[in-house]
Amino acid sequence: MHILVTNDDGVTAPGLLALAEEMSKIGNVSILAPDHNWSASGHVKTLDRPLRIKEVRLSEQITAWASDGAPSDCVALAVNGFLKEKVNLVVSGINPFANLGHDVTYSGTVTAAMEATIWGYPAVAVSLESPENLVGPADYRSASWAAGVVARSVNHYGLPPNVLLNVNVPYLPLNEIQGLRVTRQGLRVYHDKMDMRLDPRGRPYYWTAGDVPTGLPERGTDIGVLAEGFVSVTPIQLDLTAYHAIPDLNAWDWEQEPIHPQGLTLQKNHKLVEDHKV
Ligand code: MN
Q1: Ligand 1: distance of its center to the CA of 188 in Å?
Q2: Hey, which residues does 65 pair with through a beta bridge?
Q3: Which of 127, 115, 123, 249 is CA-nearest to residue 188?
Q4: Could you give the angle at the alpha carbon of 232 between the alpha carbons of 212 and 217, nearest 5°?
Q5: CB-based contacts of 117: which residues, under 8 Å, 6+ apart?
Q6: Residue 213 Cα, ligand 1 centroid: separation in angstroms?
Q7: CA of 8 to the centre of ligand 1 (A)
Q8: What is the spatial distance between Cα 260 and Cα 80, in angstroms, rounded to a whole number?
Q9: Which of 34, 163, 171, 40 is nearest to 103 (CA)?
Q10: DSSP string, 157-189
Q11: CA–CA distance from 205 to each of 95, 169, 195, 201, 210 (Å)?
C-alpha cells in the first residue's frame, strides 16, 4: 500500500511528521507538502506560475518533498506526474486545529483531500482539536492513533466513490478517547469582525479579527461527538447541490422579467434542473 501524506501547515509542521510516522506502519509513505503554511487557503489550483519541488529531510528515517504550491496543488502534483508508484490512499494532516462544519470550505487540510477525490483516490483529512490557548507543541499521539485506525479501515472496506472522510480528534489522552463515531457536519458559529486600522499614511486597511469560532454541539454532528470525547468521522462529498431546494426553484416564475435584451426568453415552463430523485 502506497500512502501519500500531505498537509496545509507546511512540510516542517510537527503534525505532518506524526502522521507520516503512523502511516509508515501501514504502508510505503511518500510525502509531498507545501513549503509554507497555507491554513485557511481553501481549494486552490495554481495555473499562473510553475510549481517547483525540493527535497526536505524531516527525520533520520523520513525524507519529504516540498512544493511552492497549495495543499491541493501538492496532491495534484503527486498523483498526476511526480510520483511514479501508484498511490492507494491520500492522508492530509494532522492539522493542529479542528475542521468542523463549514470549516471544510476554508480548510487547506480538507481541500487537499478533496483534490485527491477529484482524481479518484481515497482520501482522509485528519485534524486535532487542540485548545486555542495551547502552550508548546501539540500532543499528536491520539490523533496519530485515530489516523491509523481510519486509514486501516479505509484500506479494508474501501470508500464509496466521490466520498472522502473528514476526521477530527478531541484533544484527550488516548485512554480518555471514547471511540469513533460517524457524524454529519455540525453548525459552526463564526465570530469574525473586520477590524479597520489606519496605515502610516492614514489610509484604512482591514484585518480579520474577532473571537475564534464556536459551534452548536448537536447530537450526531462532528461538533457534538467531539464534545463527548469521541473521534468524529464525517463522510463528505464535493457535490454541493442543495437537492431539497430544486422543487422550490422550479416553481419560480423565471420569466417575470425579460431575460434577454433582444427578447429571447427561456422556453415557457422550462425546468432549469431536471427533477432529481433523491
Ligand atoms: Mn492548517
Answers
A1: 17
A2: 32, 55
A3: 127
A4: 50
A5: 123, 162, 163, 164, 237, 238
A6: 15
A7: 5
A8: 42
A9: 40
A10: H-PPTTEEEEEEEESS-GGG---EEE-B--EEE
A11: 30, 36, 8, 11, 16
CATH class held by domain 2-186+216-242: alpha beta
CA of 14 to the centre of ligand 1 (A): 11
CA of residue 42 to ligand 1 center, whole Å: 11
Where along the chain do its domains lie? 2-186+216-242
φ/ψ (deg, to 5) at 97:
-125, 155
The answer for residues whose C-beta is within 8 angstroms of residue 240's C-beta and 6 or more apart is none
In the prediction, which pLDDT does 69 show? 98
47's CB contacts (< 8 A; 6+ apart) are: none
Give the pTM: 0.91
HSE-CB at 95 with a 13 A cutoff on CA atoms is 33
How far is the centre of ligand 1, averaged over its atoms, from the C-alpha of 97 (Å)?
Answer: 7
Give the C-alpha distances (Å, rounded to integers) separating 259 from 16, 155, 250, 271: 52, 51, 16, 15
Task: For residue 67, report the distance from its CA to the centre of ligand 1, in Å.
Answer: 16
Average pLDDT over residues 249-261: 82
Q: How far is the CA of 198 from the centre of ligand 1 (A)?
A: 29
Specify the length of the chain in residues. Answer: 278
CA of 158 to the centre of ligand 1 (A): 26
How far is ligand 1, taken at its centre, from the CA of residue 183, in Å?
Answer: 22
pLDDT above 70 (res 270) = no
Query: How confident is the model over 65-94, as a mean pLDDT?
Result: 98
Round to the nearest angstrom and report the end-to-end CA distance of the chain: 35
**99 Cα to the center of ligand 1, angstroms:** 9
